[in-house]
């Protein structure tokens, strides 16, 4: 399902409203809310809204558990860290217990070793069904999402929930949730705006199935909902 908005601000408001609604529903029904954050520049406005008094007071943050969809394998104080951005815009401004936050990085181990540990953390919180309540995703100009990049072997992963690998074009290790785990989620929200996203979004949503080139096409919820929140530029209607 695609929803088209006039401005980025409208997208941010809708995403924040959906986050709050999902949190309230999950906590009311089962006592906890499990959410996956995304990195990059796209979600910063959403996180700032959630950290504002108008939104943060509507969520019982003591029962929120935060994970990430992917991460560059850099220290948490590195400007490239998705976690650093998330803390600066949201997590440092709400009353969420530190033990409920699962950063996708740890000193002293390899990315591949930590991928195993991260999957264990997910299983401890979610159980073996691995069903997150809400996953936020972005989409790159090339149609990638999380660290599922075009042409990479991770696109073929069927068993691991978390994978790490060296991304040669970027000369760095990445760690990511895999498509099979993402697709278990109750709700997946993809945020995309700007005309640079238009060609990939068109291919992802209406083009032939070619996930090796457009990995976003791998995201097909097993039983949950997939929602694209895009602006007119990304939708190609402006």
Automatic annotation (TrEMBL):
Function as written in the Swiss-Prot or TrEMBL entry: Hydrolysis of 6-phosphogluconolactone to 6-phosphogluconate.
Pfam family, one: Glucosamine_iso
Glucosamine/galactosamine-6-phosphate isomerase domain ranges (all copies): 8-227
Reactions listed under catalytic activity: 6-phospho-D-glucono-1,5-lactone + H2O = 6-phospho-D-gluconate + H(+)
Identification of the protein by name: 6-phosphogluconolactonase
Keyword Glycosyltransferase applies: no
EC identifiers of the protein: 3.1.1.31
Pathway field: Carbohydrate degradation; pentose phosphate pathway; D-ribulose 5-phosphate from D-glucose 6-phosphate (oxidative stage): step 2/3
Similarity annotation: Belongs to the glucosamine/galactosamine-6-phosphate isomerase family. 6-phosphogluconolactonase subfamily.
InterPro entries noted in UniProt: 6-phosphogluconolactonase_DevB (IPR005900), 6PGL (IPR039104), Glc/Gal-6P_isomerase (IPR006148), NagB/RpiA_transferase-like (IPR037171)
Keyword annotations of the record: Hydrolase
Taxonomic classification: Bacteria, Pseudomonadati, Bacteroidota, Flavobacteriia, Flavobacteriales
């Amino acid at each position: 399902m695609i929803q088209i908005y006039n401005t980025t601000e409208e997208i941010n408001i809708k995403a924040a409203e959906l986050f709050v609604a999902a949190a309230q529903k999950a906590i009311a029904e089962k006592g906890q809310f499990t959410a996956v954050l995304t990195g990059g520049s796209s979600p910063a406005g959403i996180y700032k809204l959630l950290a504002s008094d108008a939104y943060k007071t509507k969520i019982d943050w003591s029962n929120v558990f935060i994970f990430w969809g992917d991460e560059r394998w850099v220290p948490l104080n590195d400007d490239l860290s998705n976690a650093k951005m998330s803390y600066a815009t949201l997590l440092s401004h709400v009353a969420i217990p530190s033990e409920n936050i699962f950063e996708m990085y740890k000193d002293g181990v390899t990315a591949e070793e930590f991928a195993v540990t991260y999957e264990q953390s997910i299983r401890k919180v979610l159980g073996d069904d691995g069903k997150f309540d809400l996953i936020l995703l972005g989409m790159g100009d090339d149609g990638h999402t999380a660290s599922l990049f075009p042409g990479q072997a991770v696109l073929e992963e069927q068993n691991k929930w978390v994978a790490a690998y060296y991304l040669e074009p970027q000369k760095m290790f990445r760690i990511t949730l895999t498509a099979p785990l993402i697709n278990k989620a109750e709700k997946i929200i993809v945020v995309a705006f700007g005309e640079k996203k238009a060609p990939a979004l068109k291919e992802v949503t209406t083009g032939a199935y070619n996930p090796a080139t457009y990995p976003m096409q791998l995201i097909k919820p097993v039983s949950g909902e997939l929602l694209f929140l895009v602006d007119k530029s990304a939708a190609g209607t402006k």
